[in-house]
Write a structure and sequence with these properties.
24% of the residues lie in helices and 32% in strands. It has 496 residues and is of the alpha+beta class.
C-alpha cells in the first residue's frame, strides 16, 4: 500500500495543479465583485490545514520563567539498626556490657545541599507566578530567571499538594503576564505548544496536539489532565501549555515514561482547576475544596469488574459515575442520592468519568450549589446539592499556623534524652493564652507524637498543625511525657 501511494502522489499533484490553473483562469475572467468574494473566502482556512505556530511561541515565551530550587544542607538524626559484628570489632568487650546485640540506635547525618530546576508561568504583571508544588516544595531558596535573563528571589504564597499546584511571587512590576484561556474549550486534536526549560535547555518550545482530556493517573488527589504528545521532559514541570493563539490552557505537570524521559505523552493541569486554586491561595492561603460526598468509580470500570466475577449488570448506561458509597451528612446524602445510582451530569454538562466530575467540582467552594443529573433504578433524576468542605460544613477552612497553640518549643537536649530514655521530642518552654493552655498542657511537657507522627523538629509540628487544620478532622492528638517520666495524652481542637 505504501508503494502504491508513492506512485500515485506525483499524479495527484499534477491533477491538483491542473485544477488550480483552471480555477485561477476562471477567477481572472470573473467580474470584480466575484473576485473580492473569492479573496474574502480564501482567508478562511478549512479544517485540517497546517497551522503557523510562530505567533503562539513568540507570545508565550516571555511569560515562562526558569525556577531554581535550593534546599540547604541539614543535620538530621536518623534511626539505625546497629551491626553486632561492626560493634564487636569497634569494641570487642561491648557485648559484656549490653552492647553489640544489633539494637536500634540513632545517628546524626549531614544531608547534601540539593539543587533542581523547573518552570513557571507569569499570570499577573505584579509578579504572581504559577508552577507545580513539586517544583518548590521544601525549598529554602527560589530564584526566578525571566526570559530577558533578569533574576529575582521568589517567595511561596501557597501550595496545594492535592492538585500539585503552587503560587509564588517576585517583587517586580509590568511583567509580561500570559493570557489565560478556558481549557474546557480545548478540543481533542487541537494543536498546542509546551513551553519550558527541559533538561537545562532554557526557553524551549515543543509542539503537539491534545491527545485526550480528563485523564486520571492516580498521582494527585484531584486530576483531570490534558494529555498531549508535545514533548515534555524534566524541567518542563510548571511550564505553560498554550493554544495556537499563545494563550495558557494548562500547566505542564508530568510525563508518562518508563525511562524517566519523554516517550510519547505529557500531562498538564487545566486552567479550569488552576484558576480556582490560585484564587483561593491568594484569598485564604489554602484551597477551599468542595465535596459532593460520594465514593465510586467509572461505570465501565464497575461493569467490567462485575463481569470478571461472573455477574451481569445493567445500570441503564455505560457512561457516568457509579455511586458505591454515600457519605453520611454529605451533600449527596442530603439530596437523596443513594448507593447504586449513576451520576451522568453536573451543572448541565455531561459527565462520563470521575476526572470530568472532579474538574467541574474543583471550580466550586463549600456552600456553592450544584445541579446533579443521575439515574436511580435507570430512571433519570435531577437534584440541586449544596457542596460542603471536608469537615462536613460550609465554613471557610483556615490554614492554621503553629501560633494558634499559644506556646514556644525547642528540641529536647541530649541530656533530656538520656534522663527520660527517649530519642526525640519537643519541649514546651512557654505557654501563653491559646490551645495548649486550654487543654491543660504546661511548661516542661515534652511532645513526642502528634497524630501518630514523630515530633523531631518544630517543622514537624508546624506541618501537622497545617495538615490537621485543613483536614477532615481538625484535631491534634498529642502524646508526650513530663520531666517526671509521667506520660500524658491530649486532644486539641483547632476550630475556633
Amino acid at each position: 500500500m505504501k508503494k502504491v501511494l508513492n506512485y500515485l502522489t506525483p499524479a495527484l499533484c499534477v491533477v491538483a495543479l491542473a485544477f488550480s490553473v483552471a480555477a485561477f483562469s476562471k477567477a481572472c475572467s470573473d467580474n470584480t465583485q466575484h473576485s473580492a468574494l473569492n479573496a474574502q473566502n480564501s482567508t478562511q482556512l478549512p479544517a485540517g490545514q497546517p497551522v503557523d505556530l510562530t505567533y503562539a511561541a513568540e507570545k508565550a515565551l516571555p511569560s515562562v520563567v526558569h525556577i531554581k530550587f535550593v534546599q540547604n544542607s541539614r543535620v538530621q538524626t536518623v534511626d539505625v539498626q546497629t551491626d553486632p559484628f561492626e560493634d564487636f570489632f569497634n569494641d570487642p568487650f561491648g557485648g559484656f556490657f549490653g552492647r553489640g546485640q544489633g539494637q536500634n540506635g540513632q545517628r546524626r547525618i549531614q544531608t547534601p545541599r540539593r539543587e533542581a530546576t523547573g518552570s513557571g508561568v507569569i499570570i499577573s504583571e505584579d509578579g504572581y507566578i504559577v508552577t507545580n508544588n513539586h517544583v518548590v516544595s521544601g525549598a529554602d531558596e527560589l530564584t526566578v530567571t525571566l526570559h530577558d535573563n533578569k533574576e529575582f528571589s521568589a517567595r511561596i504564597i501557597g501550595t496545594d499538594e492535592t492538585t500539585d499546584l503552587a503560587l509564588i511571587k517576585i517583587d517586580s512590576k509590568k511583567l509580561p503576564a500570559i493570557t489565560i484561556a478556558k481549557s474546557e474549550d480545548l478540543k481533542v486534536g487541537e494543536w498546542v505548544l509546551a513551553v519550558g526549560n527541559p533538561l537545562g535547555l532554557n526557553n524551549t518550545v515543543t509542539a503537539g496536539i491534545v491527545s485526550a482530556k480528563a485523564r486520571r493517573l492516580g498521582a494527585n488527589g484531584v486530576e483531570s489532565f490534558i494529555q498531549t504528545d508535545a514533548a515534555i521532559n524534566a524541567g518542563n514541570s510548571g511550564g505553560a501549555l498554550v493554544n495556537t493563539r499563545g494563550e495558557l490552557v494548562g500547566i505542564n505537570a508530568m510525563l508518562y515514561s518508563q525511562t524517566g524521559s519523554y516517550s510519547g505523552y505529557g500531562f498538564a493541569i487545566p486552567t479550569t482547576i488552576m484558576n480556582k486554586v490560585v484564587d483561593d491561595l491568594k484569598k485564604y492561603g489554602t484551597v477551599q475544596r468542595a465535596f459532593i460526598g460520594i465514593q465510586g468509580q467509572d461505570v465501565k470500570q464497575y461493569v467490567d469488574a462485575k463481569k470478571a466475577s461472573g455477574e451481569e449488570v445493567d445500570l441503564g448506561t455505560m457512561e457516568g459515575i457509579y455511586v458505591a458509597k454515600v457519605v453520611d451528612g454529605g451533600a449527596a446524602a442530603e439530596a437523596g442520592i443513594e448507593p447504586g445510582d449513576v451520576i451522568t451530569g453536573a451543572d448541565g454538562q455531561k459527565v462520563t468519568s470521575f476526572p470530568e466530575l472532579q474538574e467541574i467540582v474543583a471550580k466550586k467552594r463549600p456552600g456553592d450549589k450544584m445541579t446533579l443529573t443521575y439515574l436511580h433504578n435507570k430512571k433519570k433524576k435531577q437534584e440541586t446539592v449544596t457542596l460542603k468542605n471536608e469537615q462536613g460544613n460550609t465554613r471557610v477552612v483556615q490554614n492554621r499556623d503553629i501560633d494558634i497553640l499559644g506556646g514556644q518549643f525547642r528540641e529536647v537536649t541530649d541530656k533530656q534524652k538520656q534522663q527520660l530514655n527517649i530519642s526525640f521530642g519537643l519541649e514546651v518552654i512557654k505557654v501563653d493564652n491559646g490551645k495548649l493552655k486550654n487543654a491543660g498542657i504546661n511548661k516542661g511537657f515534652i511532645i513526642q507524637r502528634v497524630n501518630d507522627e514523630n515530633m523531631k523538629s518544630i517543622d514537624d509540628l508546624q506541618k501537622e498543625v497545617r495538615k490537621a487544620s485543613t483536614g477532615q478532622e481538625p484535631v491534634l492528638y498529642i502524646q508526650g511525657i513530663y520531666p517526671t517520666g509521667k506520660k500524658a495524652y491530649f486532644a486539641i481542637s483547632l476550630e475556633e
